[in-house]
Amino acid sequence: MHNTGHLSPDQIRTPLTAAQRMAAGIPHRVVRLKGPFSALLGRIGKLGVVTVLTGNDSVIQEHTGIYDDTACRCAGDLCSGESAHPPRPFHQQWKYGFAVDGREDDGHVGRLLQFFDADGNGVHKILLHDSGSADAFHAIVSEFTAAEQSPVLDILHTALSAATGKILRVDVDALRTDWACADQTAVGFMGQTEFDSGRLHKLRLVGKAFAHQVGKDSVRIVLQKMADLGCSVVTLTGNAGVMQAYQGQPEQIRSGDAWLDILNRDYRLRLREDHIDTVWVAKKPTADGMMTSLELFNRRGIGIARLFSKPEPGKPERREWRDAILRLAPVFGV
Length: 334
What we know:
By secondary structure, the protein is an alpha+beta fold. Helix content is about 20%, strand content about 35%. It has 9 helices and 19 strands. The strands form 2 sheets. Strands 1, 2, 3, 4, 7, 8, 9, 13, 14 and 15 form a 10-stranded antiparallel beta sheet that branches. Strands 5, 6, 10, 11, 12, 16, 17, 18 and 19 form a 9-stranded antiparallel beta sheet that branches. Helix 8 packs antiparallel against helix 9 (about 320-325). It is globular.
């Protein structure tokens, strides 16, 4: 019989997290990084062209460009008005960082930086493009190499999100009064860059004038309509550690095997449609008129992604976007 020390049976059966699997590659292809990760991100622009991946278990946004402190700009002139809004990191949630540098099975040399939260879940991933600077990558890794380089990473799992299974106490009258007050367009957009853990509960309480549920296939319908009309869409997704918004015209929409994909030249979004439990239309008054969003939630009531029209200060949202949203059949009585 093997001696398991003080480990409980539950601990023995706990599968390795993504961070622990990454650490297992030390010292062959993997180097553990030290913080502050905010300072590390400030160096990423030196890498040149990178591919950035941000998302969660249900959706991943992937875009290629020049990463800097304000945005990941499209490479060259490929983007035709498309852009990634500035990533909004919540560094208090960033616990582990790693660099990977080495030859893969197909002979390609892969270099990437990846960050994880305290539970070992992936937060943010940055891949060096073939045209990027390997010298700058090595300089960043050298500057931020941690003293501890053990391939064994001990992670004490925290409890599930406090949002799970909890019903927040909400002053309904105050909620509706606040919601009805017009915000500046930019404030209305940026105020939703964090996935509020009580967002779904608030949508259910704010009233049908401001929020109602629609069918699970609504996101596919709306994205295809915007692609057909050549209209820009803002897609917002992320996790506990970072939020990222991308603005651009959907070029190709593909659906199959539970996946919905947007395929643009320098941008890709992959969404697990089978993870969508509810979809909501939210309407928020702003100084430039009503702002309409399409919001996706999983079975735990946690936000997966949000979609908007282009937020231009001083201009109302595009009529094509609003018409497409408001033509979705409401789902009442649920």
